[in-house]
């Protein structure tokens, strides 16, 4: 339940939930501050006029990656305690496609829909309601799709394993590719504003 | 870009650039286990040697043979295999072992030596074996080999090989042992703990 920090390993379940709530609220505040609580801002991603989502999410990934790598290297975080979800190629590809369709339709993803709902936006509240009813319906009809959900299992796969590279080199390559992605995103935004398509 | 953000970006870039040279971020990574490979070796009985095989290695002065006794000092002092070094299980990872050495482990029965085998394989040593029956296998097969009263040709042949080795190690080969007694001693051997 608690984070892989030794600091948190002695906390009770309630206390670690409180820590999780604090981290969640901070994440939500950061998303809102980046303007990601607004569906109008988010759909810019799909019209290629505003790639803020890409930049914010990629920065978050790189920040968390650098933090975990170095905290693990310094012995502050036990990386072996970090839960890594298993890979199921077909069901996760399909789940990703459904997620993407929902993202385009609503203009919000799970995290940003919570942020939108918390700031009182109606579309955010409806997206949260839709998300939870989707989870409920999937749970109720799970038996017929259970076989598919467990198919094409690859077990726990991480990028260093899949690429046969050291952990540190993967970190550097991902950080480098983030820089390239940010540059490309800026170029795409400029090109689309220039042609007046926004 | 504001100066504060410029600093954050610079710090991130430095952390990312140094990462490839920082080693592994996993704390307890002293060893790695290739589970399928180890399982295959156990399945094909490539994980252990018999006491007789070990005796032959010792007599033939096999180069770079290292015998490790993982029992306690009292047991070691009362009897140990010639050339064996006493090591505790928790100091196993700190031993000065070389990858080209043939390492043979034994304990009282077999369990601790088998566990030590897994540890050493996890630390990257490839030529590691253990005595499945422990020091008792050494006593029964090398020091006190027996020939039953009504031996078959194969048993007679095996005994002559074993008794030659046994005498080299100062053992006492015995002939004409009733089969019941032999069976009892083998059963005792199998019942003993680790």
Q: Layout of SSEs?
A:
The complex is a heterodimer of chains A (198) and B (194).
Chain A: H1 13-33, H2 39-43, H3 52-73, E1 87-88, H4 89-106, H5 110-118, H6 122-140, H7 142-149, E2 153-155, H8 159-163, H9 167-194
Antiparallel strand pairs in A: 1-2
Helix pairs in contact in A: 1-5, 3-9, 5-6
Chain B: H1 3-18, H2 35-43, E1 48-49, H3 51-59, E2 65-69, H4 73-78, E3 84-86, E4 102-106, H5 111-122, E5 128-131, H6 134-143, E6 146-148, H7 153-168, E7 174-177, H8 179-191
Parallel strand pairs in B: 1-5, 2-3, 2-4, 4-5, 6-7
Describe this structure in words.
- The complex is a heterodimer of chains A (198) and B (194).
- Chain A is mainly alpha-helical.
- Chain A contains 9 helices and 2 strands, in the order αααβααααβαα.
- In chain A, strands 1-2 form a two-stranded antiparallel ribbon.
- In chain A, α1 packs across α5.
- The model of chain A has no long low-confidence stretch (mean pLDDT 87).
- Chain B has 194 residues and is of the alpha/beta class.
- Chain B contains 8 helices and 7 strands.
- In chain B, the strands form 2 sheets. Chain B has a 5-stranded parallel beta sheet. A two-stranded parallel ribbon of chain B has the order 6-7.
- In chain B, α7 links the parallel β6 and β7.
- The termini of chain B are far apart.
- The model of chain B has no long low-confidence stretch (mean pLDDT 87).
- At the A-B interface, α3 and α9 of A face α1 of B.
């Amino acid at each position: 339940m608690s984070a892989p920090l030794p600091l948190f390993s002695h906390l009770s379940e309630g206390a670690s939930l409180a820590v999780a709530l604090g981290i969640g609220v901070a994440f939500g505040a950061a998303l809102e501050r980046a303007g990601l609580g607004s569906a109008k801002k988010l759909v810019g991603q799909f019209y290629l006029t505003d790639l803020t989502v890409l930049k914010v999410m990629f920065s978050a990934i790189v920040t968390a990656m650098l933090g975990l790598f170095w905290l693990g290297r310094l012995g502050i975080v036990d990386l072996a305690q970090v839960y890594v979800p298993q890979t199921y190629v077909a069901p996760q590809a399909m789940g990703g496609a459904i997620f993407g369709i929902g993202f385009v339709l609503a203009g919000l993803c799970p995290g940003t829909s919570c942020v939108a709902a918390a700031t009182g936006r109606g579309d955010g509240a409806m997206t949260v309601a839709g998300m939870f009813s989707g989870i409920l319906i999937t749970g109720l009809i799970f038996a017929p799709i259970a076989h598919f959900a467990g198919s094409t299992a690859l077990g726990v796969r991480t990028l260093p394993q899949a690429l046969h590279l050291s952990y540190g080199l993967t970190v550097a390559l991902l950080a480098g590719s983030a820089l390239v992605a940010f540059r490309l995103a800026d170029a795409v935004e400029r090109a689309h504003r220039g042609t007046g398509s926004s | 870009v504001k100066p504060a953000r410029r600093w954050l970006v610079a710090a991130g870039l430095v952390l990312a650039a140094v990462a490839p040279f920082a080693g592994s971020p996993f704390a307890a990574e002293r060893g790695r286990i290739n589970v399928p490979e180890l399982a295959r070796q156990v399945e094909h009985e490539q994980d252990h040697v018999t006491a007789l095989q070990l005796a032959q290695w010792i007599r033939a002065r096999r180069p770079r043979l290292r015998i490790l006794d993982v029992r306690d000092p009292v047991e070691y002092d009362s009897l140990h295999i010639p050339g064996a070094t006493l090591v505790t299980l928790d100091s196993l990872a700190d031993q000065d072992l070389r990858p080209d050495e043939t390492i043979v482990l034994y304990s009282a029965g077999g369990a601790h030596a088998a566990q030590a085998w897994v540890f050493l394989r996890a630390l990257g040593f490839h030529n590691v074996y253990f005595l499945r029956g422990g020091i008792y296998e050494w006593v029964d097969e090398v020091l006190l080999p027996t020939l039953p009263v009504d031996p078959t040709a194969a048993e007679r042949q095996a005994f002559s090989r074993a008794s030659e080795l046994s005498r080299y190690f100062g053992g006492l080969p015995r002939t004409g042992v009733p089969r019941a007694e032999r069976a009892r001693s083998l059963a005792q051997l199998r019942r003993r703990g680790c």
